[in-house]
Amino acid sequence: MYDVNKIRSDFPILSRTVNDKPLVYLDNGASAQKPQVVIDAISHAYSHEYSNVHRGLHYLSNLATDNYESVRGIIAKFLNAGDEDEIVFTSGTTEGINLVAYGWAMPNFEPGDEIILSVMEHHANIVPWHFLRERQGVVIKWVDVDPSGALDPQAVLDAITPKTRLIAVTHVSNVLGTVVDVKAITAGAHAKGVPVLVDGSQAVVHMPVDVADIGCDFYAITGHKLYGPSGSGAIYIKKSRMAQMRPFLGGGDMIREVTKDNVIYNDAPMKFEAGTPGIVQTIGLGVALNYMMGIGMENIAAHEASLRDYTVERLAGLNWVQVQGTTPDKAAIFSITLDGAGHAHDISTILDKKGVAVRAGQHCCGPLMQHLGQTATCRASFGMYNTKAEVDTLIEALELAHDLFA
Ligand code: PMP
């Protein structure tokens, strides 16, 4: 039995008020709240077990190293990666995708080579590829979504030409909630020799993810959306792709030996982790992932599916609301606009007065907004601790906004 009240009681912030109203936190797509176990783990690590990692021979350094390094295995288990050495720690998805752009694509791509992106990518999965376009003449090819927000895997595969070097696609859209069939895309792409990078930032929060089953070459995740600390994250990189990569950041930890005229790199994955890392952030992420796995990703997915269905039903009763992204199996992420009722920013300000936290704007998805013909939307994004009663509060707050502006 999924006990949402028990889960809620694990997150101290959920019992606070905002503007004298109980907090209804529906901005999980931007960042999720943290359970007490994660907060305690951070405090414990700094209070009792802190030191720099990898370089000391003293007790605390070894302890911190063990705690930190153990998270590689936790992430590998969470993603079902075959080998924990395929997990590179990052500060988040943005760093992970930049690592692939600088470390793998830049040294291997030629002018005229093509990268395929979907129109619903987050800027984190667009701008690093623009760097390649600007700096070395790589061509970006865009694949649209249909009016429901679905991405047809075949449309992605049809965009492949002999010059295609990479498909980079999100697993779940942070604006529309669309779930992309990345397994079908990967199978079709690999049949033509094209590698696939998946932006898993949103997907891993809402559903079980199995990178071995998907078969992709790169899968990036970010810790702060996973109920873990900001500044933590990871990217799964297939061993064969790691072998084709050169380091992106240079510095301590990623080297074995440095002389005046030579440098010998550390083995992967540490070769790609320069400098003092987010030690405690990563330890906190490990605790967050264990917390999620303890509840069960299938159970979280089922709970959020029921919230999604209830939200769809309640929003359908408001004929002045437009929802962007209407695929039936989407994640519980709702981008909405209101007929003749103010700008998304004004609506979110009114919702905030009712204690309802949502996000307004472009959600770092400029090309998608252009495709949708919207300047901004109001986004309610759900997490494992949200309830149907909170959906009701959202609807009441939207009705208030509509009354005020209509
Ligand atoms: N991709 C998607 C789909 C996202 O939702 C986000 C976060 N909004 C990112 C990438 C970037 O994540 P981060 O800022 O943590 O690097």
In a nutshell, what does this entry contain?
By secondary structure, the chain is an alpha/beta fold.
Topology:
Elements: H1 4-9, E1 17-18, E2 21-22, E3 24-25, H2 36-48, H3 59-79, E4 87-90, H4 93-108, E5 114-118, H5 127-136, E6 139-143, H6 153-158, E7 164-170, H7 182-191, E8 196-199, H8 203-206, H9 211-214, E9 218-222, E10 233-237, H10 239-242, E11 255-259, E12 262-265, H11 279-295, H12 297-316, E13 321-324, E14 333-338, H13 344-353, E15 356-357, E16 359-361, H14 366-372, E17 377-381, H15 388-405
Parallel strand pairs: 3-15, 5-6, 5-7, 7-8, 8-9
Antiparallel strand pairs: 1-2, 4-10, 9-10, 11-12, 13-14, 14-17, 16-17
Bound molecules: 4'-deoxy-4'-aminopyridoxal-5'-phosphate (PMP).
4'-deoxy-4'-aminopyridoxal-5'-phosphate (PMP) binds at residues 92-94, 122, 124-125, 170, 174, 199, 201-202, 222, 224, 364.
Keywords: Pyridoxal phosphate, Transferase
Family: Belongs to the class-V pyridoxal-phosphate-dependent aminotransferase family. Csd subfamily.
Cofactor: pyridoxal 5'-phosphate
CATH superfamily of the largest domain: Type I PLP-dependent aspartate aminotransferase-like (Major domain)
How many extended strands? Answer: 17
Shape: globular
- The CATH level-2 architecture of the largest domain is identified as 3-Layer(aba) Sandwich
Widest β-sheet, arrangement of strands: 4-10-9-8-7-5-6
CATH class of the largest domain: Alpha Beta
> On the 0-100 scale, what is the average pLDDT?
97
Tell me about the biggest sheet?
7 strands, mixed
The secondary structure category is: alpha/beta
The DSSP helix count reads 15
Helicity range of the residues?
40-55%
Bound molecules: 4'-deoxy-4'-aminopyridoxal-5'-phosphate
Provide the number of structural domains.
2
GO molecular function, one term: pyridoxal phosphate binding
Domain Aminotransferase class V: 24-394
Family: Belongs to the class-V pyridoxal-phosphate-dependent aminotransferase family. Csd subfamily.
Cofactor: pyridoxal 5'-phosphate
